[in-house]
C-alpha cells in the first residue's frame, strides 16, 4: 500500500464528507438531521450535511418541524420555546444519549491531589458537581451509617440509625432527636452509636424519617455528646413513632472506599478511591446538569427514542407533549450533594411536568434516582389527562426526603391521570402512586417497594381523590404496605366516596386493600399469601359505626376479609346486603376437610393425612378391619400419598372415596352395587385405586347411597354403582356399573361442581345453570312434576336474576343457595326438611323462611337440612330424633332453628350425616352433635348429643386462595376448574380464560457499566464491532489524487497508472473502475478551464467563454450533482474570466482565481459565506502568448495561495499572493 496513509475521521468544521455543505439548504418539509461526529452547526442540517448539536437544530427549527438525531453522546442544554408540534427523535436503530455528566480528567482537565492519610484525594471543579460516577456507576455520598448501592443496602431501613422516641416515653420533641444506637432486628446495619464514632455531627445534613410516611433533610445545628441529642430546624410533619435517620454532607463521614463529599464553598471534591487506586487513573464523572431538555410555551412536542444519563427533561405548560421510548439512568437527584438541605418540594431535580395536560409518556425506563421518578405539578384545572404507560421504574429514591404530597414514587397534583402497563420495584418512599383526583390505574406490576418510610400504600388515594377512580387489573406483591388504599375523613361524609377497585391480584402484603369511605365497588380481586403484620387482606373499614354502608363487595377471592384492619369477620362483619359471592378464608377455609356419611365420618388432618371413625361395617373406615371406632383412626392411603379431598353428599352412604394428592381416586367400604368402581362387587376394608380413565385426574367426588360420581380434570363427569333409579345419568337402564361411566350432559356443557344424595345427583355448570338426574319421585328436582326417574340429565329451573353460590342434595330433597343469601328447597318434606313451616311436599322450589341472615353454604342428609350463615351462626331444620339439629332438643322443626354453638365460637363449615351433624369452628376446632351410635361423633363414647360438643379431632386441613389457583408461582392466577373460587366466580380471573391477562412490562434492564467507546464505522480500518459510542477517531485508508480523497471500499474518480521501467514485471494495471465520458458544456470555452471535485464525487468546472448576450467574454461555472449539470455565469461586467483556477475547501466552499482582461487585474471569487463575493487582488497582465494562466491552492490551515502573470516594465513575471 505504498503511497497510502491512515487518517482519522475529522470533526465539526473539518467533517470528512462536506458534500458542498456550505451551499446546501433544507427542503420544505424535510427534517433536520443532527450528527455530533460528522456534522457542523454551520450547515443546514440535511441528511448529508447534518448539524452537530441538537440545540442548533432546535434554534433553527419552526413549529411542526422534525429533528432526527444520529448516534452519539451529547452534552447539551436544550430549550424548546414556542415551537408547537416539534418532534425531536433518535434516528431509527441508533442510540442517542443526552449525558448530564462530565469527565473530571477529560472535560475539566483537572488533576487530583495525592491521597492523604485517610486515602482521600481532592480536586477542584470548575462547576458544581453533585453526583459522582466511577465507570458510569454512582458512588455513595459520604454517610453514616454506611450503606451501598451495589447490595441495595441504601434501600434497607436497617442501615439507618434510630431515635429513642416511642409513643409513650416523650423522649424529645420536634426539632430534636436522641440517637438510639444499635437495635437488633430494627437497625441491623448499625453497629455503633453516633457517640462511638467520635463524630461531631453539627453541620452535617440529617435525612430524618420523623413523619411516618414523610421524611425531611435538615442541617444539624447543635449536638450534646453526653445525651446523644442533636438539634435541627423543625419539620412540618412529625409523629411520635418509627423515627429513623442517617447523616450526609460532611468530610468526616468519608470512611469507606467509594464515598465522596463536595465542598460547595470552594468547589472542592473529596473522594476515597479503592485502596491502591489513584483517582487520576480512574474514569470519574460528575453530574453538572439537572435538565438536558426544557420545554416552554410549546404544545404537542414529541421527544422520542433519546436516552438520558445523569439528566432528564423539564416540561412546562405543555398540552399534548409526548415522551417515549427512552431510558433514563440517574435522572433525578437531590441537591444535598451541593450542600443544600430542606429542598423545596416544588423545585426538585426530577423528571418534571408543570401544569401540563394530555401528556403521553410511553415505553420509558427510569432507574436509580434520589428523588421521585416522575412528577406532574399543578392543580386539577392545570394538570390533567396525563398518561404514563408501558414503562419501567427501578431503584427509585434511596433517601425518600423532601418530596411532594405523601412522598411518592409517581406524583400527580391534578386529576384524571392514567397509569397503565408499568412495572415498579425497589423504591424507598412510603407510597408508589399518589396521582391526583380520579386516577385510572390499570395492568401494572409493583413489588418490593416503600422500604424507607412507614405507613403508606402502593396506590394511595386521599379523601378528595377517590371520586371516580378506577384501580384494576394490577399485580401488587411482596410489600410491607397496603396494596391499595382509599382514605376518607373520620366522619365519612361527602369525600372519599365512589371509587372502584376490581380485578387486582395482591399477595404477601400488609393489607391488600383498605377501603375507607362509602359507595365503593370492591369486586373480583384476588388477595392471598402471607398476611404481613397480621392485617386482613381486604379491609372494608367500618369504624365508629360509620363507613361503607353502601359499598358493594362482590366476587372477591380473599384469605381474610373484614370491616376491621386485623380483627375477624365475626367481630367486624361487612354491612348487611353489601356483599356476596366472595370466597373469604374466615368462612371458607375449612370446607371439604370433613365429611359425614350414613353412620361414619372422615376428616383430612392438617398434614393432609386421613382419619376416619364411627360404624365400620364392610370396612367403610378403611382400616383393614370391621371394628367400629369412637375416636379418629389413621387411614393408610398408600406410601407417600396424602389426601386432597373427600367425597361429599354421602349422608346415606356406607362407602368412602377420596381424591389423593396426585389426583387419583381411592374408594373402600360397601360395594354390593359396584359403588367402589373397581370392576367388581366385593366389599373392601382398605383404600383401593379406581381407574377413572387413562391420564385422567379427579377434581371432585361425591357419594350417594349406592353410587359414586366424579368430576374429572377434562370437565366431564363419570358415575358408577347402582343405576336402579337412573342415578348414573348414562341414559341407560342397566341395573348398575362397577366401572366409571361417562355422563353426557350435552354438547359444550361443562360441570364445575357435583353433589349426590340418596339416589339422585346434580351438577352446577360453568354457565351458572344446574342439571340433575336420577330419582325424582318426590319432586326433589323442582321440575314441577314427580316423574320417577330422570335420565339423561335435565336443566333445573332457577331464578334468572340470581346466581347459585352453593347447592346440596339430600335423600329426597334438594336445596339451593343464591347469591343474595336466600335458600330454596324442593322435594320431600315429611319431617319439615324443606324449612317452609309445614310438612307438605313440593315439586317446585320454595324459599326457606325465617333465616336469620344470609346463607353461604348448605348441607342436607336423610331428613334434615342445615345452613351456615354469613355471621358465623348455623341453622338447621327437619328431623331431630337424635338431636341432630343442635338446638338442644329432639323436636322436629319445619322452620330453621338456631344451632347452639359453643360459647364465643362461630361456625365456618357445616356438614350432615344421616342422623348426625358436625361443624368446623372459627378457632379450627370441630364440634359434632346428634346420633352417636358406634361413636360417630368422635367423642370417645357413644353418648348422643342434642347440641354441639367439641370432638377429639386435632387440627384439620385448611384451604387457602393460593391452593385454588392454577400456578401462582408462575403468575397463573386463574382458579382451578371446579374449585370453590371457580364456583363462586370469585377473584380476578376466569377459570375458562385461555388467554389470561398479565400486568406490568417486561424490561431487560441491567445497570450501566463503562461503555465500550471506539470507531463504529464499519468501513473504517479500526472499526470496533462492540463499540457502543463512537470516539470520533475512525481511520480510513486514503490516497491523494489531484487534491481528492479516495476511501477504502468507496468508489473514486478513475486513476490511471503508467509504468516506464521495463525491467519490472508489473502485470496488467487497471484503475479498478470503468472510465466513461459525457458532454458537460456545449459551447466551446475560449481562454482556460479548470476542475475541482468534492469528496462525494460532485464536480465543479470553471471556464472562460464568449457570450453574445453580453458581447464579451465571461466567467462561467458548471456543477454536476446527482448526475445532472447546472450552469451559471458568475461575472459578466467586462471582458473577464480568463484562465480561471478553482479549489474546494474543507467546508465544501469554492474558491476561484481569474484574470480581468479589460482592467488588467487578478480577481478572486468565493461562496464561503453562502453567496458569491468578488474581490480584486492585484494588477495582472494577460497576453495571448503562453504563461498567462492562474493557479489556486488551499493549504492545510485553509489559507488561499494564487500564482498569476504580471507585466513589470518590459518584463513578464510570475507573482504569488495569499
According to CATH, the homologous superfamily of the largest domain is Regulator of chromosome condensation 1/beta-lactamase-inhibitor protein II
Structural class: mainly beta
The CATH architecture of the largest domain comes to: 7 Propeller
**Which parts are unreliable, with pLDDT below 50 for 5 consecutive residues or more?**
1-18, 1039-1053, 1055-1064
Helix content: under 10%
The average pLDDT is: 90
What is the straight-line distance between the termini? Answer: 35 Å
Q: What do these coordinates show?
A:
This protein has 1218 residues and is mostly beta strands. The protein has 5 domains: 166 residues, no CATH class; 163 residues; 182 residues, no CATH class; 361 residues, Methylamine Dehydrogenase, Chain H (7 Propeller), CATH 2.130.10.30; 129 residues, Neuraminidase (6 Propeller). It is 1% helix and 38% strand. The strands form 19 sheets. The chain has a 25-stranded parallel β-sheet that branches. The longest helix is centred in the N-terminal third of the chain and has 7 residues. The protein starts with a strand and ends with a strand.
What layout of secondary structure does this protein have?
Blueprint: E1 5-8, E2 32-34, H1 54-60, E3 66-69, E4 72-74, E5 78-81, E6 87-90, E7 96-99, E8 101-103, E9 121-124, E10 132-134, E11 137-138, E12 143-144, E13 161-162, E14 176-178, E15 205-209, E16 216-224, E17 229-232, E18 244-248, E19 260-263, E20 268-271, E21 284-287, E22 291-296, E23 302-304, E24 306-309, E25 312-316, E26 322-329, E27 351-354, E28 360-369, E29 374-377, E30 387-389, E31 392-396, E32 408-412, E33 418-420, E34 423-427, E35 431-434, E36 440-442, E37 445-447, E38 457-461, E39 470-472, E40 475-477, E41 482-486, E42 500-502, E43 505-509, E44 513-515, E45 521-523, E46 526-531, E47 538-540, E48 552-554, E49 557-558, E50 561-562, E51 579-580, E52 583-584, H2 585-588, E53 594-596, E54 600-604, E55 610-614, E56 629-635, E57 643-646, E58 655-660, E59 665-669, E60 684-690, E61 698-703, E62 707-712, E63 717-722, E64 736-743, E65 751-756, E66 760-765, E67 770-775, E68 789-795, E69 804-809, E70 813-818, E71 823-827, E72 842-847, E73 855-860, E74 864-869, E75 874-878, E76 893-898, E77 907-912, E78 916-921, ...
